[in-house]
Amino acid sequence: MMMSVSDPTSRTVVRWAIMGTGSIANDMVQILKQLPNTEVIAVGSRSVDGAKRFGDRWGIPRKYGSYEEAASDKDVDICYIATPSMRHPQDCLLAIQCGKAVLCEKCMAPDDIVAKEVLDAAKASNLLFVHGVWSRFFPAMKKIREIIDSGEIGTVRSARASFCQNDGAGSCSALLETGIYCAQFLQWALEGPDTTSYDDTDIAAKGPIVRGACQVLHDETGLDEHVTAIIEFPGKKIGSFECSLAHCSNRSATIYGSEGVIDVPFPFWCPTKVTVTRMTGLGSQQWSEPVVHEFPLPSNIVALSTECDGTEEKPGFNFVNSQGLAYESEEVNRCFRERRMETPSFSSHQCIEILRLISDIRKYASK
Ligand SMILES: NC(=O)C1=CN([C@@H]2O[C@H](COP(=O)(O)OP(=O)(O)OC[C@H]3O[C@@H](n4cnc5c(N)ncnc54)[C@H](OP(=O)(O)O)[C@@H]3O)[C@@H](O)[C@H]2O)C=CC1
Ligand SMILES: O=C1OC[C@@H](O)[C@H](O)[C@H]1O
C-alpha cells in the first residue's frame, strides 16, 4: 500500500528518534548508526539525565527529556518505540499524532482490539507502522518457507515452538514477551505469508482456533509467567507452544511434515540455522542425513565502542543475534522510502491475527 502524501519520504537519508533508553535501545542504536543513509538524530527519555546519558554515549545530537519532545521534532522521520510493552499503545499513538512513521518493539499491544486502534490511527494518517517482531526479517525464515513450499518435507501437518527463560516472571507477561515469538513462528510455518491488510479479511472467521491452553500466574502480580497452548490451524494442521519467564527450555522450534522435519535450533526467534531431515523410506532406519542451511549474521554490523565520562567502553549487545536487527531496520527504511504503510514481511493482517490468538489463549487459559 502506498502513502499518498508528502515529500519527506523521498529524502535519501532517513532520520530516526529512539524513545526509551534501555536494553534493546542500546542494541538498536548500534545497528542504526551502521546502516547507510540513516541517522539517529534524537533520543527521548522520561528524564533529561536519561536522554543525556544515552545521547552522549551514542553521539545523538538532540536529547529530549520527554517522549513528547522527541516525537514532535520536525526533522524526525521514524520513531523507534523501545519502552516497556505496557506503554507501547500510548507511545505509538503519540508518535503517530506527531506525524511520524513507527517501528514499535514487540508487543505493540496487549491484544488485537488495542492493536487495531493503533493501526487505525497510523492508517488514517497515511503513516508507516511496523510491529517489530524481528524474526520475520531473517533470511532463515524465508528459507523455511522455501523448504515447505518446495514439498521437501511432504505435507506439513504440525509445528511446535518453545521459548522459556527464567528472566522476569511477574514483571511482564510471558505470552507478550516470548509467547509472541512462538505464535508468529507457528503462523509462518502453518499458514505462510499473507500480505493483506487487517481490514481486508475477516480474521476471526478464517484464522487459527485455540483448542487447549493452560497457564500459571505470578503469585504477586497475577501476570502469566508460564503458558502452553494447542492451536488448530486452517487445513487440518496443529500447532503447539510453550512460553515461560520462570523456567528454561531449549528455545527451539520444529516443523513436521509427512516426509520429513525442519529443525530450527536456539535461538529460533532470530535464526541463523535451519536443518532438514527427510524420511527416505518406510521404517525407523530410513532417514537422510540432516541437511544444514546456515545464514550468518551481517558481518559488516559490529558492536561499537563509545566514550562515556571520558572513558572508552565497548558496551556490546545485550541480546543474542542483535546484529540481525539490521534486517528489520533496513526493511523499515525501505518501506519508508517507498512510501509504504506496512511491510509485506509482517502484514497488519498477520499482526492482528497473532494478537487475537494471544488474546484467545489468555481467555481459554483463564476459564
Ligand atoms: N527485539 C528484541 O530482541 C527485544 C525486544 N524487547 C522489547 O523491547 C521493549 C523494551 O525492553 P527492554 O529494552 O529490555 O526494557 P528496559 O527496561 O531495559 O528499557 C525500557 C526503557 O523504557 C523506558 N521506560 C518508560 N517507562 C518505563 C517504566 N515504567 N519502567 C521502566 N522503563 C520505562 C526507560 O527509558 P527512559 O528512562 O529513558 O525513558 C527504559 O530504559 C519491550 O517491549 C521488550 O519486549 C526487549 C528485548 C529484546
Ligand atoms: O525480544 C526478546 O525478548 C527476550 C530476549 O531474551 C530475546 O533475545 C529478545 O529477542
From TrEMBL:
The keyword Isomerase does not apply. Its EC number is 1.1.1.179. InterPro entries: Gfo/Idh/MocA-like_OxRdtase_N, Gfo/Idh/MocA_domain, GFO_IDH_MocA-like_dom, NAD(P)-bd_dom_sf. It catalyses: D-xylose + NADP(+) = D-xylono-1,5-lactone + NADPH + H(+). It comes from the Eukaryota. It holds the Pfam family GFO_IDH_MocA_C3. Belongs to the Gfo/Idh/MocA family. This is D-xylose 1-dehydrogenase (NADP(+), D-xylono-1,5-lactone-forming). It comes from Discostella pseudostelligera.
